[in-house]
Amino acid sequence: MAGSYEDRDGWIWMDGKLVEWRSAQVHILTHALHYASSVFEGERCYNGKIFRGHDHSLRLLKSGELLDMPIPYTADEIDAAKDAMLKANGWTDAYVRAVAWRGSGEDMGVSARRNPVRLAIAGWEWGNYYGDAKMKGAKLDIAKWKRPSPETIPTAAKAAGLYMICTMSKHAAEAKGCSDALFMDYRGYVAEATGANIFFVKDGEVHTPLADAFLNGLTRQTVIGMLKDKQIKVHERHIMPEELEGFEQCWLTGTAAEVTPVGQIGDYTFEVGALTRDIAESYEKLVRA
Question: Which residue, 33, 77, 114, 140, shows the most beta carbons closer than 10 Å to its own?
Fold first, then answer.
């Protein structure tokens, strides 16, 4: 696909039925547009099967619950809707986006209890999120913004509002010739990139930030399981920024990013080493099994 995302051929599942792509629209007074009352999932379909698709559906429901926005579908119904959308478009390899939001209704202030919660599922064919970084290693800026405290917003939800500083930070990074940006959290610990979790290697062991102030990604969980199966020690802990100098390898994980090596963060450099390549290759085999 190419061109504007609003002007394409295809089908989008919306509120219980498939609709022609260009007809999948919402009103300008949709609550989510004004107050970010929206949650979503990003998933990948490989060889006709969405990797951990049911887990993504469950997390979507949990995100809605955390934002006091109950989604009126079961996980099984969401799974079926995703399959219907993929089949209608004839895709076996695609990125899948499920999004739930508070729509237009009787309320147009902060409160929106009388407005319906809507659900749509779209998809598109999408290659490597970081382009050729899969071979050379991505270059990351260090964001000026910090991931917020769980006391300010439900950080365990995949909520649209949490991504505004991600967009701003990624734009700033791209202006410097970087692929992405690394966030610290509200306490100053290393957190994550704008849409991916991060891992480091030192002396054959893996270190990754404790997911207590950001989303514990499904790909992150999968990769931790893979590392443990390979008998590699994994430390989930708070990591200080000054520790970056001592790490030898680094990679990002996420549904879009998959497993992407990192070659540089700010002034710190990392090799695209054997463990990084092994995990990237093992993940690729797993999702296509």
Answer: 140
Per-residue pLDDT reduced to its tens digit, 71-126: 999 999 999 999 999 999 999 999 999 999 999 999 999 999 999 999 999 999 98
CA end-to-end span of the chain: 26
CA atoms within 13 A on the CB side of 71: 30
Domains of the chain (ranges, CATH numbers): 11-124 (3.30.470.10), 133-287 (3.20.10.10)
Q: Report the alpha-carbon distance of residue 145 to residue 169 in Å, rounded.
A: 7
Token pair of 151 as six digits:
């006391």
d(CA 83, CA 90): 10
Query: Hey, which bits of 131-288 come out as E strands?
Result: 138-147, 180-185, 190-193, 197-202, 205-209, 234-237, 249-254, 258-265, 268-269
The separation between CA 288 and the C-alpha centre of its own chain, rounded to angstroms, equals: 19
- Per-residue pLDDT tens digits for 153-186: 999 999 999 999 999 999 999 999 999 999 999 9
Please tell me the total number of residues recorded for the chain in this structure: 289
Q: Which of 27, 31, 15 is closest to 113 using CA atoms?
A: 31
Please, how many CA atoms are within 13 Å of residue 64, restricted to the half-sphere of its CB? 24
Active site (annotated) includes residue 158: yes
Place of tokens 């979507």: 60
